[in-house]
């Protein structure tokens, strides 16, 4: 996160760290968001390994140390959007579900540090203030060991597809958020898959997932997010 601040513990209790298991231990790869006790949303482009190599860590603040509030799960199943495609380096329908493997008959246990976010049924107006959170690269050029968050505004498709911005690279599975006046606030590498949440009636809804961008924190290049609500998807 560029232009972010360290979050207070339990402010974004749905944020997950998607980690890759290695011989030397597990390494943060992407963000994710808890939407049900056994289900985490992430970006499809984050799935670079089979389920057996992945681990989801909930309730984390500092990635560098073991924390008492953390809850760790293996991944039982991965469901990638059937229309996920990378075209000209742009990921389309960049969304996947991870089913957590229960431990002792249950997955996530709700605590002050671990909770689900709500799923939206509709869109919000442009200019709405929302949050992004993650452990990705900051303006120092390095990833953060502490969970950071920042406030960004939803930007209309029309503005974000203008030539000076993303020049018609966005389709209906994506939207932009940032601050065209304060360009330094953005998501970056390592934040991918993590949530863009907006508060409606006091509840946090996951409207977007960090997906892509043209570098980070650049003027006129706001971050691009996967649209989570099904408003643009065919019905069943
Ligand atoms: C990335 O490389 C990435 N500024 C994520 C988000 C953004 C840019 C790049 C948005 O994963």
UniProtKB/TrEMBL annotation:
GO cellular component: extracellular space
Tree of life domain: Eukaryota
GO biological process terms on file: proteolysis
Peptidase S1 domain span: 1-236
Molecular function terms, GO-annotated: calcium ion binding; serine-type endopeptidase activity
Location(s) in or outside the cell: Secreted
Record's keyword terms, sorted: Disulfide bond, EGF-like domain, Hydrolase, Kringle, Protease, Secreted, Serine protease, Signal
Name of the featured protein: Hyaluronan-binding protein 2 isoform B
Organism lineage string: Eukaryota, Metazoa, Chordata, Craniata, Vertebrata
Protein's gene: HABP2
């Amino acid at each position: 996160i560029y232009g972010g601040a360290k979050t207070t513990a339990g402010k974004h209790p749905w944020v997950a760290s998607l980690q890759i298991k290695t011989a030397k231990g597990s390494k943060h790869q992407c963000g994710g968001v808890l939407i049900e006790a056994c289900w985490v949303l992430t970006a499809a482009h984050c799935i670079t390994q089979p389920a057996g190599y992945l681990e989801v860590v909930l309730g984390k603040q500092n990635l560098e140390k073991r924390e008492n509030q953390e809850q760790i799960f293996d991944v039982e199943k991965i469901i990638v959007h059937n229309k996920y495609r990378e075209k000209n380096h742009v990921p389309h329908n960049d969304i996947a579900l991870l089913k957590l493997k229960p431990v002792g008959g249950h997955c996530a246990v709700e605590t002050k540090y671990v909770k689900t976010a709500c799923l939206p049924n509709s869109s919000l107006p442009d200019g709405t203030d929302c949050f992004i959170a993650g452990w990705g690269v900051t303006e120092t050029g390095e990833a953060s060991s502490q969970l950071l968050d920042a406030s960004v505004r939803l930007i209309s498709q029309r503005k974000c597809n203008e030539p000076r911005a993303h020049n018609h690279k966005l389709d209906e599975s994506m939207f932009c958020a940032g601050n065209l006046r304060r360009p330094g606030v953005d998501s970056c590498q390592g934040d991918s898959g993590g949530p863009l949440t907006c508060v409606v009636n006091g509840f946090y809804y996951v409207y977007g997932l960090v997906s892509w961008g043209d570098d980070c924190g650049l003027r006129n290049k706001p971050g691009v997010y996967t649209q989570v609500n099904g408003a643009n998807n065919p019905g069943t």
